[in-house]
Amino acid sequence: xxxxxxxxxxxxxFVLILPGYFFSLAVFGRSNEKISFFERSVLVVPxxxxxxxxxxxxxxxxxxxxxxMVLVGTILIISLVGFIVYQYRFKKGLKGVxxxxxxxxxxELFNFSFWQVIFILISLVLAVFIRVAxxxxxxxxxxxxxxHHMYWVQNIVNNGSLPTYGIPDFIIGEHIIFAVFxxxxxxxxxxxxxxxxxxxxxxLGIFTLxxxxxxxxxxxxxxxxxxFVAGVLYAVSAPQGKYISGGxxxxxxxxxxxxxxxxxxxxxxxxxDQIFAGLFVFSFLGLLYTHHLSAFVLIFSVVAVLFIxxxxxxxxxxxxxxxWLKIFLKPVPIIFLLLAAxxxxxxxxxxxxxxxAVSQATGEPSKITRTGLSLAQIELNVGSxxxxxxxxxxxxxxxxxxxxxxxxxxVLGWTLVLFVMAYKPGWMYVNIPSDRIGNYLFxxxxxxxxxxxxxxxxMLRRSSTKFFAAAxxxxxxxxxxxxxxxDSADAFKVKNQFQEAMETFHSAQYLAQAxxxxxxxxxxxxxxxxxxxxxxxxxxxxxxxxxxxxNLSRYDDPTKPREMCTRDMISSPQSAEASKCxxxxxxNYIAVNAQIEGKSFETYPDFSKVYGSNYVSIFKRD
Amino acid sequence: xxxxxxxxxxxxxxTTLALLLVGFSVLFIxxxxxxxxxxxxxxxxxxxxxxxDNSLDFTIENHQGGKATYGYKxxxxxxxxxxxxxxxxxxxxxxxxxALDKNKxxxxxxxxxxxxxxxxxxxxxxxxx
Lengths: 622, 129
Known about the structure:
heterodimer, A: mainly alpha, Rossmann fold, five-stranded mixed beta sheet, B: alpha+beta, Immunoglobulin-like, 2 domains, three-stranded antiparallel beta sheet, 7 strands
């Protein structure tokens, strides 16, 4: 146990820091006025994540087996290449820049005062503590999504190559990093490590939002407060703690990468800098390989930001477009664009990159869950306090509106487009579950909330009549803290289901040993067995093996006919439909909840009960 | 860039890493301890050793947190033919091979095994053909 923990902890810097550090060294040198120590420290992780993904994709394309030692060597080569580029670019011609002792503007942005540091540290302690407390009751690998993802991770580990999914639901970047950790550290997939990686990325997401806030507003108070708003408020609700324990891998990584992509875009446009333009393309490439929904949402966000900026500066529109082209038609972004195109065309095309997947996600909403959220649902989704602060932020931003500044278009465009996509998706021809879109609203609202609080503090300081302003501020803070921390109380109320999970694993182990997966066909119940999605890891036969009775609402799909056999064989096993299904599918073992369906199955004469525990019963069809 | 300028950044980053290190350690240990059939658990499993044939060898696993005595009865259809009990250590399992009188079997019956401990009963059965 302790050895595994040590191996896991040592693997983190090797995989998630080392390659990114040398990449940043190659791009920015050891010290650079463009980027602060703080920003570099944050960005090395997304850089590493993207580099490792691209490296594994390349290995797979070259048919090099993906094994531990190969990965160690690959990461060392990436780091060495970064170091050589750094030596070439910075040690020869730019020594003056390297040794500059000037206090750069970038460093000053993150040079916090004593009290700001204390506030940030308290926010971080709370952010980590609340998440750890919540996760401590859900840490045994048992969540449905994580089980599905870990099947593919185990598939990579077992085969030494990347899988062909055959369905657009999974994206390779959701699995590579976990496979790399397993292959290098040797720590098993069915341990805490997948959730710990998600926790690490989720906490890093606080920092990526923070550097974006710092660059957008250049207000240290806003940066300081963003730690609190992003890290502490609604720390348990989706898409925070609940997404970590739920194994919503793509969203967690996407929420960390989206601010990075926007950070580079903002800096590329504002500073007319080709390096940042190149890094925008690079980080966007990473997102495209990691999560389709996040990339989809980001494309809309970027278009909205640029469109709003053009509309607000309509008289200079052609000049602005010409400026943008000048930024992006330079060597660095072009190299990264060519790299992205090369990877997409020749190295690995993401599974969702086909016409049918695109047409499924766009067009008129086809289901009731895709027709948009009500305002009350949006409030529930993002949290009342964050919505209130976000609205206040918009008002304050509009009051000091300067259309020429990119920051206004960035924040307003980002917020507006996500709001419309969640509220009235039909207007944007978006055909995706609205609550999934709504989960991204927390990103711009966090930026706005931090700005609102910082701006209000500023106004309070300047105000001549402080009483009413202070009374409003304290009332607001009281509401924000009580409402924003209410969900954190759940962290201490969760009843763990460790025993149920272990009984589920025991039943899976029994079936894996006692049956012949070449002849026998197993059907298990997802509705009433906790942790059942991990069943497939005991067989590693196929993603869809064992068969599963899914959530009952899924069988009622107005958009397309669904197979009903997996439902009927458990819900009404004596029916004519079920008999036909048993013959057609060859199902001869059924795993169900002992207290619910298990009692019913005991009354059916066609089944033998071959396994019984407090929680799971297994029946064999005679 | 001076050391003083990046000191606050360093403090924030080092503290975050330290917090994560502690958090990871706590969660890793919590998971490793609980990822166990016995730690803070109270359950029993009864199963046929081979569900694919007509053999009646079965196993009782004790995950009740202490040594326990299990009574078991074997029925051919409704008729009780064997009754016995067995003591099993905490976390251990015991395989039982019942010796049924073959004269009592006519070829198509339901063999039921009922294992009991205190108030709880665990039943498994096979339709022998």
